[in-house]
Amino acid sequence: MVGMETQLASTPDTASTSPAKRTGGRSALVLAAVRTAVEELIKERGPERVTVPMIAERAGVNPTSIYRRWGDLPTLINEIATYRLDPERPLPQSGDLRGDLTAWAREIIEHYSTAVNAALLRAGAATAGESESDCLRNRRAEATMFVARTPNPPVTADQVIDHLVAPIIYRVIFLPWSIDGTTADRLVAELFDRA
Amino acid sequence: MVGMETQLASTPDTASTSPAKRTGGRSALVLAAVRTAVEELIKERGPERVTVPMIAERAGVNPTSIYRRWGDLPTLINEIATYRLDPERPLPQSGDLRGDLTAWAREIIEHYSTAVNAALLRAGAATAGESESDCLRNRRAEATMFVARTPNPPVTADQVIDHLVAPIIYRVIFLPWSIDGTTADRLVAELFDRA
């Protein structure tokens, strides 16, 4: 699981792929303060009750700086959410598709088992639908990679999305209390037993 | 598919099960005006940019009336959303579980193919997680009923939720452009071919 420290430490690398948002010195401090403020406020109040002025006050920055950098609150929340599961993290690579997908599903479930991550996912859902969120695009790229590197894969990437990622995300959003230590293994078994 | 007229016409019946919210005369008119205002504003601005004062202005009612009746915006949106797929509507009943689930999945997809219904679902997702939304509890009750009335069902109600409802809702929220006329049949085939 990616903790707060890891995310902050990895910020310069992640940001270096996006020159318009290069972060260094004061800018990196502002980003870290805003991210912490968003995460705390979402946890305390729920995503639908957080406003830009609240975030600015908590982070000790001017609201104008937030509007200038992110445009609006949905964009800000979506960008913060994309930092959560580092797309550069090492992925399971046992050589066995079923084993790798099980480890990967367990990691996603563990990631969303924290209240802040689940709240960020719900906030992202509210603003989704026009373009795929970076966060879910990364999961889809990972599913595609797992399947593509397997000779004669018994499942397609779309089936991994529909029968492994979708039920996890659905339960995280709507039925978080129904997820337990057996969920990842059960879903992978149901995905493969249909092949 | 449940249209606007059907929902409004069915309001007295639905409301009669909840005495605290009995509607008649002026109260029913206010409910209809507020519902229309919420739906229009969500469609125009996206769910995260709608406020109670905006809804009050559009509906021609005092914001205080809205706060008194619903408490806050998330509660209001969730209640409006629960009116969308009437739980009293007739369900497919061909005697064949696979056929019934296919017709049911097509109906859910058609329901969420309109922009307002999809936006209400996303707004509901943002406020979910503490208790199951009425809307999804109804779908779960329906899945349970389909399976329970089938002798020796090849799938469980949980599998219907994970492998049919979850991928539909996931795609409606995050990948609406990926849903087409083949989605319901494909997902049902994948659900049953694993049995």
Automatic annotation (TrEMBL), chains A, B:
Residues within the DNA-binding region(s): 51-70
Taxonomy, superkingdom: Bacteria
KW Transcription regulation (keyword) present: yes
UniProt KW keywords: DNA-binding, Transcription, Transcription regulation
Annotated region (Disordered), positions in chain: 1-23
Membrane-spanning residues: none
Domain HTH tetR-type: 28-88
GO function terms (MF aspect): DNA-binding transcription factor activity; transcription cis-regulatory region binding
Bias kind Polar residues: ranges: 7-20
UniProt xrefs under SUPFAM superfamilies: Homeodomain-like, Tetracyclin repressor-like, C-terminal domain
Entries under PANTHER family matching the protein: HTH-TYPE TRANSCRIPTIONAL REGULATOR RUTR (PTHR30055), TETR-FAMILY TRANSCRIPTIONAL REGULATOR (PTHR30055:SF148)
Protein name: TetR family transcriptional regulator
